[in-house]
C-alpha cells in the first residue's frame, strides 16, 4: 500500500507525465538521424568541437592555424565534451572521419540529449503554469506533439550540428526558471534564470541584447510599479542577482576575446555576415527572393506563390541565380 501511494503521489504523476511523452518523442527522433555529412556553415560547429576536444583550441579552422571567436562557444563546448565522453569518438578520429558514416551518427546522437531536455522543460513549464492537473496533462502532450512535429523532427534541426536545438532548450528552461522566480520571489531562482540567460547569449549572441532588454523590462514592470507583496528595493536586488548571474557566465568569454583579438564581443560572425550582405548589393528582386530561396519545405512553395518565384528563378539564367 505504501509503494502504491508513493507511485501515485501527485509529484510522481507529474514527473511521469513529463518524462514519458518526452522519452517517446526522443525515441522517434532517433530514427530520423542519418549519416548525411555536415557541409558549409553546418560543419563549422563540428570542426570547432573536434579541435576543442582533440587539441584544446577553440577554432573552426580545419588546418588549426589559430584560435578564433567566429562561433558562439556553448554549443561547441557541449559537443566537444560529448566527443570526449563517447568512446566511439574520443580517440582515433580525424577532422574528416568524424564527419562521416558511423562516427557522424554518433555525433548527431548528442542532439537527442538536447531534444529530450527541451521536451522535459516544456512539461515543467506547463505544470508550473496550468493548475488543473488533468488540463496540464493534456497541455503537456499537446505541447510536446507540436514541438516534435513543427520543430524537432525537421532535418536541419535534429540531423545537423546547428545550434537551434540548443538555443530552444535553453530558452525553454530559462522560461521555466523565470516563472518560478517571479512566483516565489527567491534569489536562487533569479540566479538560475540569469545563468540560463547567459547560456543563451553564448549560444546565440543576439540574446545578449535580448537579455539586457528583458532584465530592464522586468526592473521597470516590477520596480517602478511593484505588484502587491513586492517591495521596490527587493525587486531591484533580485534583478541585480539575475544580472550578476548572467554576467558571470558571459563576461569570461568576452574577456578572452578581448585579450586574444582586442574585440569585446561574443562572436565575430555577426559583423562578418552583415558586411558580406552589405557588399553583396542585392537588388529588390533578390532581396525578396532570398526569403523564398532560404525558406524550407511547404513554406517555400507558399512564399513562391505569394511573391511570384519558382525553382526556375534559381537556375543559371534565373532572376535569383546570384543567391545560389
Task: Based on the model shown, name its key terms.
single chain; 324 residues; mainly alpha; 15 helices; globular
Polypeptide structure, described:
With 324 residues, the chain is mostly helical. Helix 2 packs parallel to helix 7. The longest helix is centred in the C-terminal third of the chain and has 30 residues.
In short:
The chain has 15 helices and no strands. With 324 residues, it is mainly alpha-helical. Helix 2 packs antiparallel against helix 6 and helix 3 (41-55) crosses helix 4 (73-85).
User: What class, by secondary structure content?
Assistant: mainly alpha
Oligomer: single chain
Q: Total helix count?
A: 15
H/E element order? HHHHHHHHHHHHHHH
- Whole-Å distance between the termini? 67 Å
Q: If you compute it from the alpha carbons, what radius of gyration comes out, rounded to the nearest whole angstrom?
A: 23 Å
- The average pLDDT value, as a whole number, equals 89
Tell me, what's the shape? globular
Taken as a percent bin, the fraction of beta residues is: under 5%
The total of beta strands comes to 0
Low-confidence stretches: none
- The percentage helix is 55-70%
Largest sheet: none
